[in-house]
Write a structure and sequence with these properties.
With 461 residues, this protein is mainly beta. It has 5 helices and 34 strands. The protein is 7% helix and 39% strand.
C-alpha cells in the first residue's frame, strides 16, 4: 500500500495541543480536510482560567486577547447600552452580565439618560467583548456557553470590521418572562450579509435556521441556568470557504450551508433544501418564513447530496442579493461575545423586568472556553524526537492502531463523534484492533503521566 493510500485509509488529522486545558479531552468535531491537521490558534483561544476585574475604562485582558467593548463606537442595539464594567473573568468563566441602566455608578461611554427606541425607562446595561485578533476561513471556532436566563440575546459571533459580513455562532434569546416565546426554545444558526449605505440586511429566515431539541422544555435559559447549577452548550462554526459553513452543537453536525443550498438535521433525518426567488425577491411562506424548497432527505449527512441540491438551485443561500459582489464571505472577522436587548424583541414587548435584571443567577451569560483552530498540511510520520512522548501510527493492513510510548500508559479511550466511549483500555498496549468499529470518524485519547494526547482518525473497512 503506497503512502497516499495509507493516508486515505486512516487519516490522522488532528493533534490536540497539550496546554489546551479545559477542552483537552473534547475532540474537535469538524474535519480539517484531506491530509490536514487542526492547529490551535493560541492568540484567539481562551480557557478563562484567570481573573479580570470589572473595569470602568476600555481595557485589554486575557493576555491582550480581548477588550471589554464592541469593535467600534456603537454601544448596542435596541435598548442596549454596552458598558465596560459589565465584563469580568472570575478564574473559571468569562462573565457577561446585564442590569437596568441607571445614572448612578454607570461607567462610560454613556453619561446622559438613555432614550433608545423612545423608551427612557427601559435602558439595559450589558457587557460586550471583542477579540484583538481576527479569524479568516478556513477556520473552526467553538465556544462552551451558558446563556443568560433572561429575555435578552446571548451571543457569540464573527463580524468584519466594516460590519458587512457576520456569522452567528450562537444567538439565543434566553429565559422565560411574561411574554415567553419568541424562539426562547431555539438557538439561531444564521449569518448576515449587509450593505451599510443605504442599509440592507440579508439573513436566512427559514424554519431550519432555528435549532432546538427535546430536552429544552421551556427555554435554553432555563436549561443553562439549571436551578443554579449552570449547564453549558458547546457550539461551533467550521467556516470552510466563502460559501461553505458548518454548524456544530455539542459535537454534532446539525446544519450546513453550501453555495445555493442547505442541509439541516431534524431528529434523525437530514433535510436538503434550497431557496428561491420571484421577480428578484426571495420567496416566503404564509407564516413569514423564507421558503425552503425540498430536494432530498437522508439518515446521515451527505455532502454530495448537498452539492446536488446546490446545483439544482439558482439562488445563493449565502448572499442572494449579491451584497458581497459575488465574493461570498471572504473578509477577516472579529470574534464578539455579548448580551443585548434587540430591537425586534423590544418592539414586541419582550424585555426583562427589573427583578430579573437584578438577579445575578439569571442575568448573566457565562463562557467556559472558546477555541479556534486552523487546518495545516503538516501531517507527519511521527518519528519520536523526545522522551516522554506518545506516538500513534495507522496500520491499515491489520486493522489496528499501533501505539509507541516512552512512558507507562494509564488510560486509552476511543470516542465516536457523539462523545460516546467505544473502546477503553486501562493498561499499556502496543496495538488496538479496530475490526469491531463501524466505518466513520473516531478520536483516540491516551493519558500517560498526566499528559493527554488526542488524535482523530477515520475507519474505512
Amino acid at each position: 500500500m503506497n503512502k497516499k493510500q495509507l493516508l486515505t485509509y486512516f487519516l490522522l488529522l488532528s493533534i490536540f495541543n497539550i496546554f489546551a486545558q479545559d477542552w483537552a479531552n473534547i475532540p474537535v468535531p469538524a474535519d480539517a480536510g484531506t491530509d490536514k491537521n487542526w492547529e490551535l490558534q493560541t492568540t484567539l483561544s481562551d480557557d478563562f482560567n484567570y481573573t479580570f476585574n470589572p473595569a470602568t475604562t476600555k481595557s485589554n485582558f486575557g493576555n491582550n486577547k480581548w477588550y471589554n467593548f464592541y469593535h467600534n463606537a456603537w454601544d448596542g442595539p435596541g435598548t442596549t447600552y454596552w458598558k465596560y464594567n459589565h465584563v469580568w473573568v472570575d478564574g473559571s468563566d468569562l462573565i457577561i452580565t446585564s442590569s437596568r441602566w441607571n445614572q448612578t455608578g454607570e461607567d462610560m461611554p454613556i453619561t446622559n439618560s438613555p432614550n433608545k427606541m423612545n423608551k427612557p425607562n427601559d435602558g439595559i446595561s450589558a457587557g460586550c467583548i471583542t477579540s484583538n485578533n481576527k479569524v479568516l476561513y478556513p477556520v473552526f471556532v467553538e465556544a462552551s456557553v451558558s446563556v443568560a436566563n433572561i429575555a435578552l440575546a446571548s451571543d457569540v459571533w464573527l463580524l468584519s470590521p466594516d460590519d458587512t459580513q457576520e456569522i452567528d455562532i450562537i444567538e439565543c434569546y434566553g429565559g422565560a418572562d411574561s411574554n415567553n416565546g419568541f424562539f426562547a426554545k431555539d438557538i439561531h444558526l444564521s449569518h448576515h450579509s449587509f450593505v451599510r449605505q443605504p442599509f440592507q440586511d440579508y439573513q436566512p429566515r427559514g424554519k431550519n435556521t432555528w435549532y432546538t431539541r427535546s430536552d429544552i422544555t421551556t427555554s435554553w435559559g432555563d436549561y443553562c441556568w439549571n436551578n443554579g447549577a449552570r449547564k453549558y452548550v458547546e457550539i461551533g462554526v467550521n467556516w470552510i470557504s466563502p460559501v461553505h459553513f458548518e454548524y456544530y452543537i455539542d459535537g454534532e453536525l446539525v446544519r450546513v450551508l453550501y453555495d445555493k443550498a442547505s442541509a439541516t438535521k431534524k431528529g434523525s433525518t437530514w433535510y436538503y433544501t434550497y431557496p428561491s426567488m420571484t421577480n428578484g425577491t426571495l420567496d416566503f411562506d404564509s407564516n413569514g418564513y423564507q421558503t425552503e424548497n425540498p430536494f432530498a432527505t437522508s439518515s446521515s449527512y451527505s455532502f454530495s447530496t448537498l452539492q446536488n441540491a446546490s446545483n439544482t438551485s439558482s439562488v445563493s443561500i449565502i448572499d442572494p442579493y449579491n451584497y458581497q459582489n459575488g465574493q461570498g464571505f471572504s473578509k477577516e472577522l472579529d470574534i464578539i461575545i455579548n448580551v443585548e436587548s434587540q430591537n425586534w424583541h423590544v418592539a414586541a414587548g419582550r424585555t426583562p423586568n427589573d427583578a430579573l435584571l437584578s438577579d445575578p443567577s439569571k442575568n448573566t451569560m457565562k463562557v467556559d472556553w472558546i477555541r479556534v483552530y486552523k487546518p495545516t498540511s503538516s501531517l507527519s510520520t511521527e518519528t519520536p524526537t523526545q522522551s516522554n512522548s506518545i506516538h500513534i501510527y495507522p496500520v491499515p493492513a491489520n486493522q489496528t492502531l499501533h501505539i509507541k510510548s516512552e512512558q507507562k500508559i494509564d488510560d486509552i479511550k476511543i470516542y465516536n463523534t457523539l462523545g460516546v466511549i467505544v473502546y477503553q483500555q486501562t493498561t499499556s498496549v502496543e496495538t488496538i484492533p479496530l475490526d469491531q468499529l463501524n466505518n466513520g470518524v473516531y478520536f483516540i485519547s491516551i493519558n500517560a503521566n498526566n499528559k493527554t494526547t488526542t488524535k482523530r482518525f477515520v475507519v474505512q473497512h
